[in-house]
Amino acid sequence: MHRRNFLLATGTAALAAATPSAPASGTVLYADRAIPLDQVRADGSELWVHSKDLPRINEFEVKPQGACRGDVCIPLAKSLKQGEWFHLTGFARQVHQSYVADAQVWSFGEIPVVRGEFLNSRIAPDFAVPDRQGKIVHLSDFRGKKALIVTWASW
Amino acid sequence: MDLPGWQKVYAELKDRNFELIAAAQDTGGEPAAGKWYDAAKATYTTLVDVQHTISSAYQFINVPMGVWVDERGRVVRPAEPAWTTDSTLKIGDKKITTEGKAYVAALRDWVENGEKSRFAMSDDEFTKAVKPRSAAEMEAEASFKLAVFFHEKGSDELAAKYWHHAEELNPDDWNYHRQEWSFTPDQAGKKWLDKFQKLDHSYYPKLELPGTPGSDKD
Q: Considering A108, A129, B85, B182, which has the largest number of Cβ atoms within 10 A of its Cβ?
């Protein structure tokens, strides 16, 4: 009896390693936005998302030639796609993007190839940060003026 | 806190096609930051940057730091300490020096002369000044943002775990340390002093402005 249960348990574990868990909800953090996802599949810290969710996560889109964002297209290993699912953490490793995950929340760092556009072009990264009244302010609101952006803190 | 100083600079330069955008790096939000803006009677753009978005975007590792952006949205000078006054604070055998006069003079020169200003960096200078983040620095950023998320959800234990992870990965980023310490204010001073006394480099990155032609320093 015990042995049978043991076999069942290991069988399930082996299956889980090959294919991620049943869909559950999760949250992705990227570029200071929290993107709630109704359905993700997780395997430890590995994360699979619906391909159709990719654009609202990081502005990439799965196309025949790869994952594309603007002029940048990154060819994808076949293993990153499984039907409608996209292996987001596998993609992160491919593009040298860091991530940290816990409690169904995956926090992704910058994507170096996207960051590189700033380093090469000097175009200041735009931002969306609230003012004191909660109104979102973008750097691009000040296009046409010189601007000094200065930080401080109460702490 | 240099907010009143910036109000003076803003009053002088605001009618010269110039905007000053101040961003409080405060996960505590308006309740933490607002009173300081009030006290300074700030009329420039006053942001409350709960997630430290500005520090992430421009690679600031302390406060105050600044970046100049021109009319076309190009960075003219990247991350550097941004004060309005000169001061020296001695702590034990170490000191913290601020060079605000030179910084504001440079800013004034750029607002007046634009890309002809000698303080406007060339592409070569910019490339030398801005380094891509290391893998550890990028993971620290991801971890810090995860901590902010858990903090806002009220999951304090998870938040603490990821503040600490960020601090371990990038111990040179004072924004991580000081934001985390702000949630245990009775210990914050001692923690700051302990770390400060062990520093083997300066507390702020060095402000490196080109000298005034014909003299070493103004």
A: A108
